[in-house]
TrEMBL record:
A GO MF label: zinc ion binding
InterPro entries, A to Z: RNF32, Znf_RING, Znf_RING/FYVE/PHD
Source organism superkingdom: Eukaryota
Signal peptide per UniProt: none
Pfam families: zf-RING_2
Keywords associated with the record: Metal-binding, Zinc, Zinc-finger
Descriptive protein name: RING-type domain-containing protein
Organism whose genome encodes this protein: Paragonimus westermani
Length: 133
């Protein structure tokens, strides 16, 4: 007689940043780094929630969650996924292996340096949608 309720999808509540920029000005010229070029450097800030939302939307526009991990070429499925601040998506374990092997933090696709990483869960929703259709 008790009514069963299905909990709302709370994937977004579980998302969190696992790496912020270590050397935010690494891609700038020496003149910029030592302050010879006018203007404030805005790259030292971590991404805000609004900026992360824009990164996720860019990733979704490319339909990355419905594709395969660019490193192992397997479906994202239910494995933990990482979204980089450059908007590229990988399995967490694949990206960690790549970083160890290359001994650097650059995106395997666009070679962006010193990115931020965020654990995301919308790949699970995409997987469930893909399996249901």
């Amino acid at each position: 007689t008790g009514k069963r309720t299905v909990p709302k999808n709370t994937y977004q509540d579980k998302e969190f940043v696992i790496r912020t920029r270590q050397n935010p000005c690494a891609g700038h010229s020496l003149a910029h780094q030592i302050g010879l070029i006018e203007g404030m450097c805005v790259c030292s800030k971590s991404l805000s929630e609004n900026e992360w939302t824009a990164v996720k939307l860019k990733c979704m526009e490319r339909r990355d969650p419905f594709n395969r991990c660019p490193i192992c070429h397997e479906d994202f499925g239910l494995r933990q996924s990482i979204l980089l601040s450059c908007s590229h998506l990988f399995h967490k374990n694949c990206l960690e292996s790549y970083e160890r092997f290359c001994d650097t933090h650059c995106c395997p696709i666009c070679r962006a340096l010193d990115y931020e990483k965020r654990v995301i869960y919308f790949t699970k929703s995409a997987y469930y949608h893909k399996m249901a259709t």
